[in-house]
Amino acid sequence: MVPEMADPGVVRFLELVQRELGAADARLEVGGKDPDDARILFHAAQNGWRVVAVFDAPPADRRALQTRLDSLSETFLSTIDNATTGPSSSRTPPDIVGRRLDDELTRLAERAGARGGVVFDLASPVLWGASRTDDARVDTLLEDAVIRVRASAKELRSGHTSRMPLGSDAECLARPFAGLYVLSLVFEGPLSEPSAVGALLHALPIIERLVLALPPVDPPSGGAKIMRLPQR
Predict the structure, then answer these.
(1) What pLDDT, on a 0 to 100 scale, did the predictor assign at position 98?
(2) Are residues 54 and 149 in the same domain?
(3) Tens digit of pLDDT for each residue in 196-213?
């Protein structure tokens, strides 16, 4: 069965593979013999598909690039599975997916005792979703968290939740997921880390599915570091 290649999660995944490995092209393949070309690296997924990265010339550091390709492919395995099992009978419109993502972030913030939550990525100024609030202070805290986490991106580790200060009376939790995205919660006052992290981990699978269901968004021009949150 041919996958629905317009699936936004797969498109962003292949773009990520191409960018992270410095490849000329990236694609999914199924069937046939494994590639036998010095210009190609591939990861054989358990579902029978291959993630293939194509270079203009044989890469110098094949071992390091192969390790990176394997890591990215395993992280996005659920995305590949969803896209290659065939199209669903109906696809949820992007605006509804966006509202559901905001709703999930709002519920997560309440359960975690946070002022708010936001999802963004480390490769563009785009904010993919944010909890609902009428408090301008919360919007400011969320923007501060995005700036702080992006500036400290090297401190983020897959499968780990980082705790970062946002000034004298605020802080945030940041959890990377799906290779490129970050879920962050902001707090003022006392923070119960076990409860907050537990709520975050419980909500993360559905938030990840909603984010990967959103269509790609071209970042605004002008080299902006952040797209401001809308007043809600």
Answers:
(1) 86
(2) no
(3) 999 999 999 899 888 888
What separation, in Å, do the N-terminal and C-terminal C-alpha atoms of the chain show? 43
What integer is the mean pLDDT of 42-47? 80
**Taking residues 18-23, what's their average pLDDT?**
88
Same domain, 76 and 158: no
Nearest to 166 by CA among 149, 183, 191: 149
CA–CA gap between residue 175 and residue 211 (Å, rounded): 14
- Within a domain: 23: yes
- 106/199 Cα distance (integer angstroms): 12
d(CA 40, CA 52): 7
**Distance (Å, whole) CA 133 – CA 172:** 17
Same domain, yes or no: 54 and 121: no
Q: How far, in Å, CA of 213 to CA of 101, rounded?
A: 10
Residue 27 has pLDDT above 70, yes or no: yes
